[in-house]
Amino acid sequence: MSKFIVRGGNRLTGSVKVSGAKNSVLPIIAASLLAEEGVSVIVDAPPLDDVITISKVLESLGAGVTYQNDIIEVDARSITSCEAPYEWVRKMRASFLVMGPLLSRMGHTRISLPGGCAIGTRPIDQHLKGFEALGAEISLGQGYIDAKSNGRLRGAKIYLDVASVGATENIMMAAALAEGVTVIENAAKEPEIVDLANYLNGMGGIVRGAGTGVIRIEGVERMHGVRHHVIPDRIEAGTYMAAAAITGGDVYVEGAIADHLGPVIAKMEEMGVTVIPDENGVRVISDKPLKAVDLKTLPYPGFPTDMQSQMMALLLRSEGTSVVTETVFENRFMHVDEFHNMNAEIKIEGRSAIVTGNARLVGAKVCATDLRAGAALILAGLVAEGTTEVSGTHHIDRGYVHLAEKLSGLGADIWRISMEESAVPAAAAKEEVVKPEPARSESFKGEEVKPRFQIQPSWV
Ligand SMILES: CC(=O)N[C@H]1[C@@H](OP(=O)(O)OP(=O)(O)OC[C@H]2O[C@@H](n3ccc(=O)[nH]c3=O)[C@H](O)[C@@H]2O)O[C@H](CO)[C@@H](O)[C@@H]1O
Ligand SMILES: C=C(OP(=O)(O)O)C(=O)O
C-alpha cells in the first residue's frame, strides 16, 4: 500500500512522453486469442496493472504471454480453457473482453459476471444482445455467464441501444470468425475501436467502417498473429495537458495525437490555454488566468468522461462558475467529496456539478476513489497550498505509467511512499521514495499480481 505526496506551487515545464493507450491495449490483448496461427507481438504496451491482469487472464486460458520493454507477445495457438474466473474479472471489468474472441474461436465460454464498479452499474446487456444475435445461447447462473454456439457464430445486423465501447469491441471480435457478415449499428467511434479494427485486419480479419457509427465485419475462417503498435493514450496525454494548464506551465506532451483530443483541446482553448499541435505531440502553454467553461461528457467524438474529473480540477482554478455534466456514467462525481476536503466549493445537482472557480485549494489527505479521480486529486495537489496525500494508488496504477516520475520530470514536487511511512517531514519521507521495477522479461505465469513498485532509498 502506498500513497502519492504532492507539494503544490511548482510551475511545470519541459517534455513528457505518453505511453500506449490502456483502452486500446486491453481489447487488443484479448483479440490475440483469435490467432490460431503464429504469435502476436504488441508494441508500446504500457506496463500497467491492468495489462498484467489481462495477461494473467490469457495465461489462465492456456495462452503463453511474455512482456519485455513494453512489448507483449501472445501465443494463443493452444487454448486449454474457456473460463475467465471471478478473481480476474473482479480485478478489472475489461477482462470481460475475452468473451467475444473465446466464443468465436472455441464456440463456448464461461465468464464471471463483471458487476458494477465505483463509477456506475455498467451493465453488459448490449454485449449479450450482440452475442445472441450472432447465434450464441446465453445462460446465467451462480455469478457466471455461459455462452455456447452450435458450430460457428453467424453474422447478423446488431443495433446497439447505447454506443458502448466494450460492447462494440466484444461484438467485433466475436464477429471476426463468424460465418458471413455482421453489421454493428450505433457502434462506438472511439480511436481505440479503430486501433482494434486495424489489429483485427492485421490478423487476417475483414473489418470496415471503424470510427464511424456503422462497422461491417466479414467473418473469416482463421486468423493469425501480427505485430502491432498500440496508439498513444489520449487520456494520459489529456491529463498532462491539464497539469500544464493548471500550473501555468509550458509543457510538450510527446506522442499526443491532437485529432484524438479534439474536445479536450477545444475546452482548454476556451479557457484561455494555448495548445499548439504538431506531428509528434502537443505543446500546452498556460500564461493567462483560466476562464470558467461548461462541459458535458459524451461518447466520442464528444468530451471524454475519462477526462471529466481532471478538467474539474482545472475549473476549480478558473475565474467564474462552471457546470460539468456527466452523461456517460451515473456515479462519476466521487472526486467531488475529496475536492471538498481541499477547500473546493462544488455543488452536485443531478447529473451536473456546479464548480465555483478561483478556489484557494489547500493540501489534505484524500483518496482516489477511481482511476481518473486519483489523477484529478494529484492535479489539484499541484496547485494546493501545502501537502496533499493521495491514497488509493492501486486505482491510479491501473491507468498511469510512472505518474510521479513523469510529473517530477516536469518540475512537480511529487513522490510516492509506502503507507507505513509518514509524509511529514517531507525531507525525511523523500529518503524512502518508490522507484519503478526494471522491465519484466519473464512470463507472468505463476506470479501473483504484485504492485510494480518497490521502496528504494534516495531516488529522484
Ligand atoms: C477498458 C475501456 O475501454 N474502458 C473505457 C470504456 O469502458 P466501457 O466499455 O465499459 O464503457 P461503455 O462505452 O460500455 O459504457 C458507456 C455507457 O454505456 C452503458 N452500457 C454499456 C454496455 C452495456 O452493455 N450496456 C450499457 O448500458 C454503461 O453503463 C455506460 O453508461 O469506455 C468508457 C466510456 O468512454 C470509458 O470511460 C472507459 O475508460
Ligand atoms: C473507467 C476507466 O476504465 P475502465 O473501463 O477500465 O474501468 C478509465 O480508464 O477511466
Walk me through this protein's architecture:
It holds the Pfam family EPSP_synthase. Strand 24 (365-367), helix 12 (371-383) and strand 25 form a beta-alpha-beta unit. The relative contact order is 0.16. With 460 residues, this protein is an alpha/beta fold. It starts with a strand and ends in a 5-residue tail after the last strand. A four-stranded mixed sheet has the order 24-25-1-26. Strands 2-17-19-18 form a four-stranded mixed sheet. It is elongated. The chain has two domains: 2-19 and 232-455, Alpha-beta prism (UDP-n-acetylglucosamine1-carboxyvinyl-transferase, Chain), CATH 3.65.10; 22-229, Enolpyruvate transferase domain (UDP-n-acetylglucosamine1-carboxyvinyl-transferase, Chain). It is built from 15 helices and 28 strands. The structure holds uridine-diphosphate-N-acetylglucosamine (UD1) and phosphoenolpyruvate (PEP).
